[in-house]
Amino acid sequence: MSASEFRRRYLWLMVFTWNLPALVGFAAIIFIGVMTPGQVVGILTTPLEPAYIILWQFIGIVLLPRQMRPLMDWLDNRPGSTPDAALRAMRRFPLWFWSLFLTYLVLAAISVVIAADIYTDFEATPLALFRIELVALIVSIIVGLPIFFLILDLLGRAMGGLVVRRPIITVKTKVFLIGALIPLLIDTMLVQYYWTRTGFFTRETFIIWLSLEMLAIGGSLIFVRSFGQSLSPLQGVIEHELPLWKLEPQHIRPCSTDELGVLSGGFRELLEDLAVHDEILSFNNRVLTAAEAQAQLPRLLDEIVALVDRAIGDSMSFLILRDPHSEELVAVSQSGADHDPGGHFRIQLDEPSLAVEAFLVRETLAIDDVSRDPRVSPRLRERFRVCSALVAPLLMEGECLGVLMTVSREKPRHYSSRHVLLLENLAHEAALAIHTIQLREQHQVLEQRQRAQHQALLELSRAQAAAEEDLATALAVSTEAVARTVGVARASVWHYTEEHDAIECLDLYLAAEDVHQRGGLLSARDYPDYFHALEENRVIVATDAHAAVETREFSDDYLGPLGIGAMLHAPLRRGTEVVGVLCIEHLGGQRVWTLDEQNFASSVADMVSLILELWKHKQTAEALRRHQDHLEELVAERTTQLQATNEELEAFSYSVSHDLRAPLRAIDGFSRALMEDYHEVLDSTARDYLERVCKGAGHMGQLIDDLLQLSRVSRSALEKKQVDLTQLAGETMARLRETAPDRQLSFHCAEDLKAHGDERLLGIVLDNLLSNAWKFTRHTPDAHIEFGVQQEDGQQVFYVRDNGAGFDMAYADKLFGAFQRLHSTSEFEGTGIGLATVQRIIHRHGGRVWAEAGRGEGASFYFTLGAP
Amino acid sequence: MEERTILLVEDNPDDEALTLRALSKNNILNEVIVAHDGVEALDYLFGTGSYEGRDTSRQPELILLDLKLPRVDGLEVLKRLRADERTRLQPVVILTTSNEERDIVSSYELGANSYIRKPVDFNQFIEAVGQLGLYWLVINQPPPEARGT
């Protein structure tokens, strides 16, 4: 509601307040006959009465709205306005209103009497004054109260946005004023009317009127009191001035059986439930934050039982859990007793019992009268004298952990749906607490195990680093870590033998004696199933090693004697190949290997595989290094030998060139000296002999030179570069022509023949080949020599072709051997070393040399040079 | 005509005889002093040993030096010869059987003036000796101090 609308309505109500009572008052005066209409008109035409009315109207309309200024400011959202000031103004309003209003009316009666006495024929008597005052009073209430309530309603609507902590006008007041007072006053007016009309106003009638009036007032007071009693719970709510949810149930006590009583009762229950839920919540909180989960559980369960006692208000409650190790329900907590993990009592799951029934059907059971219910155990009735019982299952993730039960002893009672709901809630909480704590415990165990595994893997990685140095220690660390982490008596590492038909124990750790052993062989022939499974490259999980397909063949000669009950095998791998196995053995009975443990075993196996691999790698590297060292020694030795040989060879060649030639020279020289100096003495035969001696010495000199050249081309280092073969051939040819300038011979050389090789050696090649051609065309009339190149398979093939004597291809294979000649010395001189030298040079260049010829058809010599 | 001596350093008596014959065949009639090994050659050149007191200011016109010599070899003789002030500029012709490249290179490196390989064929040998005699003793202008008195 806006301030202007409020102002408008308020002013209208003010106008009514000051005018309506006057109108009704005059009407009542005329009606009961105190004055005649003429007298009333007379009064109203006098200056006194209208002035009086206008004055009061002015006071009322100006003064009272001013009182409401804070409220209007607040409605206008003016700065500085507060809801508290508005409320204060409103609280002051009834006092202002009624004091002004009553003063107005009491004085109004006097003003009417005075005005009537002065300006009309009305005779002012005390009785008349009393009667007019009475009229004024009654009118003020009959007319003033409705207007007052209209104003209050207006204020109520205007203040609707504010939270009012205590009432401004109580309901009781409203009921009293409107419900009791107004009928009473109307009745009084009627009596006055009859009195005036009948003139029957005596002491007797007055006493009777007064008694009846008293009775009416007494009745209305009784009515108001009864109504007040209905309202008293609300009064309680208001008295404490607390937020509604903070009220205690005892603050609300329903004192009536009417709707208000019902509502108050409901509210009280709501508060009680709220209190229980509050406790449930805080309980829940404690469960979630409980530090020492396992240690806290009994206390928490006891708390649940106490909470049930309070919430349901029964004589006794029980928390009954299922024993996971036996087919029994165990009452671990009970009202008025300390937690007993062994159970205050135990119930077999096949016994007739309410707890068992609820546990099995997983539903809440509420039984008001247990005496006739066959599901209830006689013990419950006899030992605890139970009359009524309520039991709810503890359900968690589709599993029933136990039941929560509350019973009423000695006297039967009814369990409402609210009780059922509460107990179910509490059962849910209990289940949650147990489950949460179990989860936390599991989590802790898991965490510890993971930490242990992590630690173990860390140790292993350290072992790995050391593996290169010391395999035995690395493996010992591994097996110890496994045995300790998984908690088994035996852990071992096995490796395939060289033949791959058995596994050999590299390290076995016996936890009990804290010793390591090694050796021991398991043959694939003896345990085919196991080896078959091992080759499948997977973890072998044998919960019962005697029964598992993979390991039962060990039963008699391995598992039995050693007392092994369960086994876990993880393959050691190199790439995808299985090279061994990590074996974890549990002494005693069966053992379930958790997925966690399997994964751990697998991880460790991988690390051990790596250890083995590293070690092997190191071994190989060492062997390789030793081998290399040896090789280097060998090479050095050979090189030294070779150098020595080379040096020897060189020394030999040197000696040959020197010492072999000197005697030849002596032979030749002195033979010639003989021929010259003793020419006359010697006959022709002697001279011929001496000639032959000289020739022989010359040939031998040539032989020695050629041999030296052959040995030299083998020894000297190649100095490869681009060589102009055309030029080399030309120079050689020119040299040859000089030896016999008269010879007619055509030489054709392809232009710009280039090759990559040693210039000096290629010179020797061309020299030999061209010399040969030169030599073997000596007897050919139209001699022709050609040097060129042709392409064969993308390779350059050089050739020297002549049309000379040629040779028989049958002997072509002998051509390139040293001292091999296809012609007699008398026919063509030569040492038979030239082509051997050519072949050696070409081979040293990585090329090939061959010849094609026919007897008397000339010869072609081809050669290639290897890649540059 | 001044006496122009030739020093022939040759250990092989056959070669010595053949060389002398070749020289005479070519009408080279200069006095030839023969040293049979390196030590003897050096003694002669520096007036030591068996040649103690020889006038070393008179040095041979031409030294024909074999490389393969007993005691001190030809290259060593050449080295010492070139190191001494008296024989530093003396013409030295290596006359040897070897045609090993390294011998040729070493000789020239040590200051040989010429390198001649003795041919097996005696006719060629005579020709070669004739040419070197003609060249070194007639055509070639020797260094001033070697002219002697």
Would you mind describing this structure in some detail?
The complex is a heterodimer of chains A (868) and B (149). Chain A has 868 residues and is an alpha+beta fold. Helix content of chain A is 59%, strand content 15%. In chain A, a hairpin with a 4-residue loop joins strand 8 (502-510) and strand 9 (515-517). Chain A is elongated. The model of chain A has no long low-confidence stretch (mean pLDDT 83). Chain B is α/β, with parallel strands linked by helices and 149 residues long. Chain B has a single domain, classed as 3-Layer(aba) Sandwich (Rossmann fold), CATH 3.40.50.2300. Chain B is 40% helix and 14% strand. Chain B contains 5 helices and 5 strands. In chain B, helix 1 packs across helix 5 and helix 2 (38-46) packs parallel to helix 3 (74-83). The termini of chain B are close together. Chains A and B meet through helix 17 and helix 18 of A and helix 1 and helix 5 of B.
Main traits of this protein?
heterodimer; A: 868 residues; alpha+beta; Beta-Lactamase; Heat Shock Protein 90; 6-stranded antiparallel beta sheet; 15% strand; elongated; B: 149 residues; alpha/beta; Rossmann fold; 5-stranded parallel beta sheet; globular
